[in-house]
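4.2 Preliminary Data

To establish feasibility before requesting continued support, the project team ran the inverse folding procedure on a target of 1393 residues. The structure was first converted into the token representation described in Section 3, and no sequence information of any kind was made available to the design step. The complete token record follows.
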């Protein structure tokens, strides 16, 4: 390769310098600016910065979103539906103003909100006892026990009113007439666990406590037994009202006063208290023992006031008392036995609040009205509303109470301090009115009817959560007969109205004739609570399917017990669909539903009825049957009114599937499914407790009957969807897409299909998940729990049904549990296939066909580990287990893989362990994505990286196998009796699997691991097609790996490849010093000089030439660095920059020349650069030589001056004097000659030799300083310049007569010519060749010299020989030459020998 550089355009300025633009980087070096300042140049236009790589360019882009799996998407639908149900408005939001909104339906109407299920007659045996009554009778209900009671004089009788012929349970130990009876909750720790309730019986002289044990029989009835507790309290007065709290406290009121007494009892007597006693909380201290009449005379202003109603709010620890003067008192209950009155609202206070709330007067709320009953509202139901009071005119007054803590965040709950009216609910109108929404009403306000007398004569009212209201009305024309008015919040309408529209207190109501006087009412089912907080508490729609029987109530009259049920929305819908005649009427009714409850609730109700959810059945029985026409009509409503998916308009953005809003049909399926599973979705699967023996037990949180009911309902939904798949949009598949009229519609249908499919997948997992849970408990879950490790046990404790149904961690834990079930059955002697097949039938997604294969493989592994087994049989079992594992490699979990590998290692089945890991790694990445990612340089945030991570886990297990193998093989000999041992055979098998693998990613990872372990010798000994690729990739990362690749090549005699790697490394950007790069290039030149099989001679010569050129440049750079480091002209603060620039990557020749060598005046290095760059400008080269000669002379003179100055200062000579200038010049010329390989262009003899001779004469570098006068001639002859060329240059100088070889100065030339010719003649004679001859021109030159020397015998020759001696020497030389001259003239040589 040639380097061409034009000559100087201006003296000292190199506009184009030696460079190899195609081989070396020509970036500007910052050292030039600070080393030798240059004139400022015109600014160059800046170029925009380019990103270093694609990763940097993509760094600002958002990471791609991972598409959701069907299960995750469906779980999101369920959570959204549950959240929507939980946002049902709290009571305070719609119970805060005046209202008279009712949807009054006839008793036998399909829209009736309540239904009278059954009427149980009072048993004849009760009437028989009643006939013996003498003084008094009383009746009541124990609704929670399905029992009624009657007190006849001093006897108490109980009976199960649901039994056709009940037996009376009597208590006849009282001696006085019974005045009050109450069933309360017992205090904890007082009675045995068999006592579930305490029966309080009050007479005119004593109070008796009886223990009640209620046992449920096989038929579902309650069997009651009474136990005498020996607790009796003698007291004066006749208790008439008794209430109990959830903590077991008992309060009562006597007929003669309005004092509140508390009955306390304890297990043992104490010093100052007996087992049973009472506390008067109204008249405390000595006032409690003052005679009643005296007390009234002294202090009482209301002698006729008495308490008529007493109720408890356990959620707030409040006790409310209502007197016959419509005064409401509020008491705060503090543990253990304190009761403090905190609020008292008299009738006038309440009337004042009413006047403020109403803009006008109402005849129903005048001073003649009376409050007849009160009902508490728990804190769980609402935070503000505390109490509902019923007037005798049928108005309901909702009262709210506040305390100081209400206005402070995070303040503890305290007793309320004030109470005020919050809302009024007026009776329904006597004539039905057309329902209008708030938006339809004038000014957005409804017409509130405040003068309806439909509930005039209300004598008692009871409210149950979330607002079920029972009002017993007695009309003047029938004083002994009550009419029951029942109302309930219209939850569907309240939920359907948005808060921006304003929520009204909508209610559904109806009248029921009970044909008797009501004595008591009770709730038969669990108290209603959709949530455990006010928000969402009253959502009846959400809990329709938790209890298909709904809420049931028992009403005791003097004729019997009436059972009334609250009808669900789906019950009403089913009745409407069933009783509707004709399609037009059905359409009208459906539109009515949609207007009131919205499309979603209507479609959901239709779906539920179509799935046979619309008939709860009779009282105490199972679910009723729905006729086929009703099912068909419900199905048609669901299909025809379900709507279509919609794609909202986007602002110029491309439409995607995620933007599609599914149809109401899909939303109805999701909502219905969420309500079916709402009770278990977020519930934990198990709970940990201890039994009576102290051992821990694992129990299910959700009862199994409930799980079966949910499973049956979900299966019914799946069956309905499957049976009607062709009619339901989104389930019929490709046929729907064929109907699409546009791309947008097609996209919407695709989204609908995906949403439907997701819900179907979730339903399948729900049914199988429930089966799995029930199977888990059938298999003694406590034993299975004990078999799990700590992590799995914690996971099982935290496992929820949502996680089990829809999340990967839950399913992975389920597989662990399945494995535990299988292992337990195997230990019990069961066959693995039998157990696994049973699990597959019940819950296929939790125990798939692959799981069965895994179980078989694990069973074989377990058998192979038996110590008594034959080695051949054990190896066969291990081989079979490997084959089974390989069959299911794509689905083999990490836990199962690690377990199998661990067992293989223990059994020393190393080859099988490695093979299994390789198979699983390949199965996890069928598309070779990991390999492509590695080959692309492992870009960041690439989705293919996860495939590499999956493979990496498998390769890590292989590393564990190899480590154990090495440890085991190191403990045992490899050869015994000239035969390989068993461990040696296993090692050979294992490494044979490794070496024969075609998994390139595995090999690359294995070699990486070898390097991490420091096993470079093992790595270099590998014979694999992937090792070269690996080492090449590593060689581009650091120097050590590149050196490793060189060793790899040289060990295999691939010297050409080693030289190429070393050459590339020397030119790399790695942190290498220039000397290290020189070392690499030197070794590369050595390797490139050795013949390598398979490499052509031309390639080898080209590489050798390139390496040689690089080596020359590197040597120049190294010389420059050393020179600059010791150059005193450079400031010390610039030295680090020079070190950084030159002691590293090889710089371009242009930079080395322009920035350093030329600027610093290192002319010898400039000449070498000319040689390397193949620079051939003779003028520039001659100028550089002249500058070098002069610079060398000046430097030596400076050294001598310093030497002399030091000598004078010391008065003695220093140790060693510096050399003479000519000596230093000789050394430099010889060095340049050798480094330039005697390049005739850089080392031009015809011009350089006269310059040196001229320097010797002009600077007296001759005998005058003790130098050999012939040193210039000897210098060139010593450098192997031919005698012929030296003499001819001297001849040209003799003839030219240039200064200083003019006149007497020619004597020096004659002397040099004579010396050169003598040496020439001597050289010819030394070789002793008979044909040695000189050409005639030499004789002619000597003759001319002889003539000049003879003529100038009396001249001068300072520093040289005496002229006379010179003339004599010339004559002798002439005689010697003439003897060797021949004719004709031969070919003349002008160069080196």
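Position-by-position output of the design step:
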């Amino acid at each position: 390769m040639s380097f061409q550089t034009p000559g100087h355009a201006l003296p000292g300025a190199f506009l184009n310098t030696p460079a190899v633009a195609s081989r070396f980087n020509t970036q500007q070096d910052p050292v030039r600016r600070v080393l030798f300042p240059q004139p400022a140049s015109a600014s160059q236009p800046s170029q925009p910065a380019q990103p270093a790589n694609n990763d940097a360019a993509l760094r600002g882009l958002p990471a791609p979103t991972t598409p959701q799996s069907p299960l995750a998407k469906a779980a999101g639908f369920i959570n959204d539906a549950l959240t929507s149900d939980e946002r049902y408005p709290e009571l305070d939001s719609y119970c805060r103003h005046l209202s008279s909104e009712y949807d009054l339906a006839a008793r036998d109407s399909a829209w009736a909100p309540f239904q009278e299920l059954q009427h149980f007659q009072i048993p004849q045996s009760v009437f028989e006892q009643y006939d013996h009554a003498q003084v008094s009778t009383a009746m009541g209900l124990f609704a929670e026990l399905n029992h009624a009671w009657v007190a006849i004089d001093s006897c108490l009788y109980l009976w199960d009113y649901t039994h056709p012929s009940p037996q009376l349970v009597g208590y006849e130990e009282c001696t006085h007439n019974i005045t009050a009876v109450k069933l309360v909750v017992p205090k904890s720790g007082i009675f045995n666990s068999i006592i579930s309730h305490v029966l309080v019986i009050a007479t005119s002289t004593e109070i008796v406590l009886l223990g009640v044990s209620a046992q449920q029989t096989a038929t579902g009835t309650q069997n009651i037994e009474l136990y005498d507790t020996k607790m009796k309290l003698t007291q004066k007065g006749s208790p008439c009202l008794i209430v109990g709290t959830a903590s077991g406290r008992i309060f009562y009121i006597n007929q003669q006063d309005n004092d509140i007494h508390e009955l306390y009892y304890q297990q043992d007597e104490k010093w100052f208290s007996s087992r049973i006693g009472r506390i008067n909380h109204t008249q405390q201290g000595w006032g409690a023992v003052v005679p009643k009449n005296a007390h009234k005379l002294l202090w009482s202003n209301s002698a006729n006031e008495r308490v008529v109603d007493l109720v408890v709010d356990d959620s707030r620890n409040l006790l409310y008392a209502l007197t016959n003067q419509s005064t409401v008192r509020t008491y705060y209950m503090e543990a253990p036995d304190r009761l403090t009155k905190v609020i008292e609202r008299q009738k006038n206070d309440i009337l004042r609040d009413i006047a403020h709330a109403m803009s006008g007067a109402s005849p129903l709320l005048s001073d003649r009205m009376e409050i007849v009953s009160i009902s508490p509202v728990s804190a769980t139901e609402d935070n503000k509303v505390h109490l509902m009071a019923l007037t005798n005119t049928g108005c309901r007054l909702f009262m709210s109470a506040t305390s100081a803590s209400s206005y402070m965040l995070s303040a503890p709950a305290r007793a309320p301090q004030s109470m005020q009216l919050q809302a009024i609910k007026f009776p329904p109108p006597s004539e039905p009115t057309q329902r209008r929404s708030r938006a339809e009403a004038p000014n957005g306000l409804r017409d509130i009817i405040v003068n309806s007398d439909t509930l005039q004569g209300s004598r008692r009212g009871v409210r149950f959560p979330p607002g079920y209201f029972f009002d017993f009305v007695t009309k003047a024309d029938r004083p002994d007969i009550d009419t029951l008015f029942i109302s309930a919040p219209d939850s569907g309408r309240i939920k359907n109205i948005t808060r921006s529209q304003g929520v009204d207190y909508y209610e559904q109501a109806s009248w029921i004739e009970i044909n008797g006087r009501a004595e008591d009412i009770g709730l038969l089912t669990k108290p209603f609570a959709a949530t455990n907080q006010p928000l969402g508490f009253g959502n009846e729609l959400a809990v329709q399917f938790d209890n298909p029987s709904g809420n049931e109530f028992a009403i005791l009259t003097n004729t019997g017990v009436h059972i009334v049920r609250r009808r669900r929305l789906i019950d009403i819908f089913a009745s409407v669909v069933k009783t509707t005649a004709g399609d037009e009427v059905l359409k009208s009714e459906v539109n009515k539903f949609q207007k009131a409850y919205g499309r979603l609730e209507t479609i959901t109700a239709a779906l539920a009825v179509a799935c046979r959810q619309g008939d709860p059945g009779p009282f105490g029985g199972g679910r009723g049957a729905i006729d086929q026409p009703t099912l068909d009509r419900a199905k048609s409503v669901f299909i025809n009114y379900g709507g279509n998916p919609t794609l909202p308009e986007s602002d110029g953005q491309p439409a995607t599937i995620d933007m599609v809003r599914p149809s109401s049909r899909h939303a109805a399926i999701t909502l219905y499914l969420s309500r079916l599973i709402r009770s278990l979705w977020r519930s934990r699967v198990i709970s940990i407790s201890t039994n009576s023996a102290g051992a821990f037990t694992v129990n299910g949180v959700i009862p199994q009957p409930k799980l079966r009911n949910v499973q049956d309902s979900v299966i019914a939904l799946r069956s309905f969807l499957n049976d009607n798949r062709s009619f339901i949009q989104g389930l019929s598949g490709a046929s729907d897409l064929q109907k699409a009229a546009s791309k947008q519609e097609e996209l919407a249908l695709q989204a609908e299909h995906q949403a439907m499919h997701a819900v179907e997948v979730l339903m399948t997992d729900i049914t199988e998940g429930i089966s799995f849970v029930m199977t888990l408990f059938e298999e003694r879950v406590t034993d299975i729990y004990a078999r799990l490790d700590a992590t799995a046990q914690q996971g099982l404790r935290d496992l929820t049904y949502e996680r089990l149904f829809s999340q990967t961690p839950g399913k992975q834990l389920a597989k662990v549990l399945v494995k535990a079930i299988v292992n337990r059955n195997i230990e019990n002697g069961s066959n693995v296939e039998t157990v696994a097949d049973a699990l597959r039938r019940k819950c296929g997604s939790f125990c798939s066909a692959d799981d069965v294969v895994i179980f078989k493989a694990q069973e074989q592994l377990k058998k192979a580990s038996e110590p008594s087994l034959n080695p051949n049989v054990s190896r066969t079992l291990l081989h079979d287990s490997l084959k089974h594992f390989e069959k299911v490699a794509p689905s083999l979990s990490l836990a199962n893989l690690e377990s199998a590998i661990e067992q293989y290692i223990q059994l020393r089945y190393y080859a099988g362990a490695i093979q299994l890991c390789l198979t699983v790694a390949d199965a996890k990445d069928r598309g070779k994505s990991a390999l492509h990612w590695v080959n692309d340089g492992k870009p960041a945030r690439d989705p293919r990286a996860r495939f590499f991570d999956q493979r990496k886990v498998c390769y890590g297990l292989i590393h564990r196998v190899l480590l154990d193998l090495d440890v085991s093989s190191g403990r045992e000999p490899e050869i015994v009796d000239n035969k390989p041992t068993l461990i040696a055979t296993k090692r050979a098998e294992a490494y044979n699997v490794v070496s024969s693998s075609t998994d390139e990613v595995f090999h690359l990872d294995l070699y990486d691991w070898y390097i991490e372990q420091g096993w470079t010798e093992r790595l270099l000994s590998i014979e694999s097609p992937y090792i070269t690729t690996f080492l090449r990739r590593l060689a581009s990362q650091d120097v050590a790996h590149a050196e490793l690749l060189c060793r790899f090549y040289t060990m295999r005699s691939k010297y050409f490849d080693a030289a190429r790697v070393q050459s590339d490394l020397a030119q790399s950007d790695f942190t290498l010093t220039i000397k290290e790069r020189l070392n690499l290039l030197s070794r590369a030149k050595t390797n490139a000089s050795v013949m390598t099989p398979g490499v052509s001679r031309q390639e080898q010569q080209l590489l050798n030439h390139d390496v040689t050129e690089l080596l020359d440049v590197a040597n120049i750079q190294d010389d420059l660095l050393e020179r600059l480091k010791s150059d005193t002209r450079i400031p010390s603060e610039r030295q680090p920059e020079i070190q950084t620039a030159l002691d590293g990557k090889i710089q371009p020749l242009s930079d080395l020349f322009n920035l350093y060598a030329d600027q610093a005046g290192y002319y010898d290095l400039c000449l070498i650069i000319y040689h390397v760059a193949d620079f051939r400008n003779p003028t520039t080269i001659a100028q550089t030589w002249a500058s070098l000669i002069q610079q060398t002379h000046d430097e030596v003179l400076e050294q001598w001056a310093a030497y002399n100055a030091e000598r004078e200062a010391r008065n003695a000579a220093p140790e060693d004097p510096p050399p003479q200038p000519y000596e230093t010049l000789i050394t430099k010329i010889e060095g340049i000659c050798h480094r330039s390989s005697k390049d005739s262009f850089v080392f031009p003899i015809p011009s350089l030799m006269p310059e040196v001779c001229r320097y010797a004469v002009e600077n007296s570098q001759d005998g005058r300083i003790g130098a050999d006068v012939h040193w210039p001639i000897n210098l060139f002859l010593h450098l192997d310049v031919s005698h012929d060329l030296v003499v001819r240059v001297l001849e040209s100088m003799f003839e030219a007569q240039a200064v200083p070889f003019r006149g007497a100065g020619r004597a020096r030339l004659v002397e040099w010519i004579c010396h050169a010719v003598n040496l020439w003649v001597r050289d010819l004679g030394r070789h002793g060749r008979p044909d040695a001859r000189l050409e005639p021109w030499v004789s002619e030159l000597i003759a001319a010299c002889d003539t000049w020397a003879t003529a100038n015998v009396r001249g001068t020759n300072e520093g040289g020989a005496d002229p006379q001696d010179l003339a004599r020497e010339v004559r002798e030389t002439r005689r010697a030459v003439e003897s060797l001259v021949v004719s004709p003239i031969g070919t003349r040589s002008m160069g080196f020998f």
